[in-house]
Amino acid sequence: MLMNLWLPNGISMDAYRVDRAVNAYDERLMFARNEDTGDWCVFVRMPSPKPPMPVFGFGDRIPDPVEAVARVQEGHLVKHKERIWKEVTESQEQFKKKFSDKADDARDESVEAIEFMMRQEGLSPIVKSLPKGVSNNDA
Question: Are 104 and 57 in contact (CB under 8 A)?
Answer without folding.
Answer: no
